[in-house]
């Protein structure tokens, strides 16, 4: 059984389309089909349900997929170990981050790059559920996500900072003279928020429920950039994590007001698969995260409340 055949098989399972899987592997579709037939001969059972197109994996295919992901991850770890012995840390590291953490993820990746300049980093935006699934499937090396709200499994975590919440609202609006806002008051503003598939939104909705209010959400988006675009017009309000101010600042004509009654925080941190040994790159990233005082860099962004 050849590793490249396992790579092709995993790509097919991920893409769920023969043409796209072949393109992702930089091979022809006939080469992909031939490799799949060889795997099926070795396993002694069909791996894919198909007629003229991909329909899914058989039970045997699902079992092979789990094993193949683990084998390929082990091979990547071996490659990293050998490369580190020869020339120091190098290779590729892929991180998934929840949208709420994206504005300040550069603090972590830049600190890592300064210490390990030969490592190529890829950062992708993912929901917290997608990060957990990708870690389970060995398709991400690490994630930046919430640590203390919804359950995580099979991971080890390093806290980066405590997320706090502010209301960005027009300076000439009803909160013009305020230094803070109660959650119950914020619920009545014309709100633009992330979509409910984002854990940040589920946290916000939970706090509004806690104070007995249903927020007046008039715009929803799964894009941080779209959210910021609406706020930049000065016509909308939004509940933002405080780390957004580090990269965007307070837009002209807007106020950034701490949310109170209740004051809530949630831990954001690095998660990696709970396994021993960790790959050299993941182990190095975890060490950088543990030594990074991100909280002190973000604290000055929070306006003082009365």
UniProtKB/TrEMBL annotation:
GO terms for molecular function: DNA binding; DNA-binding transcription factor activity. It holds the Pfam family LysR_substrate. One of its GO terms (cellular component) is cytosol. SUPFAM superfamilies: Periplasmic binding protein-like II, Winged helix' DNA-binding domain. Residues 1-58 form the HTH lysR-type domain. Transmembrane segments: none annotated. Keywords: DNA-binding, Transcription, Transcription regulation. Gene3D superfamilies: 3.40.190.290, Winged helix-like DNA-binding domain superfamily/Winged helix DNA-binding domain. Belongs to the LysR transcriptional regulatory family. This is DNA-binding transcriptional LysR family regulator. It comes from Stella humosa. The lineage of its organism: Bacteria, Pseudomonadati, Pseudomonadota, Alphaproteobacteria, Rhodospirillales.
């Amino acid at each position: 059984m050849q590793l490249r055949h396992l790579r092709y098989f995993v790509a097919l399972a991920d893409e769920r389309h023969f043409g796209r899987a072949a393109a992702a592997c930089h091979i022809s579709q006939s080469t992909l089909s031939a490799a799949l037939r060889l795997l099926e001969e070795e396993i002694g059972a069909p791996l894919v349900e198909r007629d003229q197109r991909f329909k899914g994996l058989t039970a045997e295919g699902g079992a092979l997929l789990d094993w193949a992901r683990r084998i390929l991850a082990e091979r990547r770890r071996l490659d990293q170990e050998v490369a580190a012995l020869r020339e120091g840390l190098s290779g590729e590291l892929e991180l998934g981050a929840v949208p709420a953490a994206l504005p300040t993820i550069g603090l972590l990746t830049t600190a890592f790059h300064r210490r390990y300049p030969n490592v190529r980093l890829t950062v992708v935006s993912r929901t917290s559920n997608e990060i957990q699934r990708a870690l389970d499937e060995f398709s991400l090396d690490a994630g930046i996500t919430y640590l203390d709200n919804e359950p995580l499994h099979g991971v080890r975590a390093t806290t980066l900072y405590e997320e706090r919440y502010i209301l960005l609202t027009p300076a000439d609006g009803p909160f013009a003279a305020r230094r803070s806002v109660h959650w119950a008051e914020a619920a009545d503003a014309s709100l633009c928020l992330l979509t409910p598939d984002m854990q940040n939104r589920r946290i916000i909705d939970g706090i509004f429920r806690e104070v007995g209010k249903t927020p007046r959400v008039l715009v929803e988006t799964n894009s941080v950039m779209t959210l910021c675009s609406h706020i930049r017009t000065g016509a909308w309000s939004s509940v933002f994590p405080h780390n957004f101010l580090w990269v965007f600042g307070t837009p002209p004509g807007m106020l950034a007001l701490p949310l109170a009654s209740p004051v809530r925080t949630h831990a954001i941190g690095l998660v990696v698969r709970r396994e021993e040994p960790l790959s050299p790159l993941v182990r190095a990233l975890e060490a950088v995260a543990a030594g990074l005082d991100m909280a002190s860099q973000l604290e000055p962004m929070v306006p003082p409340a009365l």
